[in-house]
Amino acid sequence: MTNRYRSVFDIIGPIMIGPSSSHTAGAVAIGHVANRLFHAPIKEVVVRYFESFAQTHRGHGTDYAIISGVLGFDPADRRVPLAVDLARRQGLKITFIEDQGLSPIGHPNTAAVTLINAEKEITVWGCSVGGGTIEIRKVDLNGLIFTPQGPLPILFVEANQPIGAALDQLFGENYRRPRVTHQLADHYIYQLDLLDRPFPEQIDQARGMSQDLTLL
Amino acid sequence: MYETIADLVTTATAQHQPISELIIAQEIKLSHSSREIIWATMGKNLDVMIAAAKKGSSGQGVQSATGLTGREAVLMAKYRAAGKTLSGDTMLRAVETAIATNEVNASMGIICATPTAGSAGTLPGVLSVLTERLDLTRNQQIQFLFCASAFGMIVANHAMIAGATGGCQAEVGSASAMGAAAAVEVAGGTPQQCAEAFAMAMSNLLGLVCDPVAGLVEIPCIKRNVVGSVNALTCADMALAGLTNKIPADEVISAMKRIGQDLPTSLRETGLGGLAATPTGIEMKMKIFGEDVSIHAEEGPDEGREN
Lengths: 216, 307
Prior knowledge:
The complex is a heterodimer.
Chain A: H1 8-11, E1 15-17, H2 21-38, E2 44-50, H3 51-56, H4 62-71, H5 83-89, E3 93-98, E4 109-116, E5 121-130, E6 133-141, E7 144-146, E8 154-159, H6 164-171, E9 175-183, E10 188-194, H7 200-208, E11 212-215
Parallel strand pairs in A: 2-3
Antiparallel strand pairs in A: 2-4, 4-5, 5-6, 6-7, 8-10, 8-11, 9-10
Chain B: H1 5-15, H2 19-31, H3 35-57, H4 72-82, H5 89-106, E1 110-112, H6 122-133, H7 138-158, H8 163-166, H9 172-186, H10 191-205, H11 221-240, H12 249-262, H13 279-289
Helix pairs in contact in B: 1-10, 2-7, 3-5, 3-7, 4-5, 5-6, 5-11, 6-9, 6-11, 7-9, 9-10, 9-11, 10-11, 10-12
């Protein structure tokens, strides 16, 4: 028993452009996570596919789906099938790699999406578990490695002072311990695996004590 | 959260509530949303389903970019209109709707995944028949979708709903079982009858493999949705008539999961086995992609891997 599907709309939905909920809509979602964690102009995208994704990405529209997510499109956006051309016209360098090995995060529908510009590079390892629902099991933010348990929602918070205790208090029983902290010279990055969608007021409060916050 | 179908049935029976109401209450609690918003969101999903079915079966219909599939829902509509059918107009309405929806999906049109895009035609196929036969209101159609989602969520959390992890039994098999259960609810059956219909529908499709030609979601996916819809309707009728599955629904889900894990990689959405590996299937793939694009992933044991 997992609890990765928690909403009726994980089962009836999403509304999307075909052809595959796992290989298309889920792939949009993985690309979108990368986009949201990068939040800066992108110069280059490298997508590495594993297992079923490596075998069927062309037929299932996974290429345009991931790039749609990177561009911030909704899964039902009419531009989804055109995303690779649109992105290349915007000057993005895009590479797709079919990895012959098994998924490093243990799921046949795995993509590792790397976003690069002159200042930074991030990689998101996501898997599409079916029906458009995804998990994020590894994130590399400029060399800092996070390994969330997978199911969303996942919260990333950056602060220039330690706020771990405050986050514990704020989210109480609504996250799977332990939280992950990376301490850098001048700031801290926290990653929390949340159990349920947090209340908007909780996110507002967390944002108030941080420099940067991303709720996936 | 409701963790088993037995749990859903027991609670619904004790509270004299339909299963759809239990899942709506759970959704309100977990999403911090109001009933009105949740109901309206499901209504939008219904609108997308209706629009897709209409698009696929009217005018010239739709064709996929590869040209491999399309315009067959229109052929079915004409055949129905001529009136000389073997399985009767009701059943063929489900057939037409299921094909139309998945043709729209294959042509990169807008659909609602139920529970997946590859199986998006199954529930609409069932619902189109019920709407006509039982004269369902819009609210009853939305109720059908909530009930289906309650059953689907248990399958998704206990087993899988992706072809890559469980084969087509996890997609069309799950959709068909969800549709059977929800059909019983809107037809006035008991929660236990919903569970029986579910168990029969899923049992009937156990072992169904995912072998898409050229790695597309066209052949055989589109017509497998027909099987899903028709199976759902007949299983709902069996349950309403008092027939039972003998193996409980939760155990059928566990069996589906184990079968999915036992399926070789070639039959789990890799486009390497089954119909995809027939001479014609391979020729189609070569024609579309201009080369043999298959790579051969190492076959590894699935132990310790999640679904």
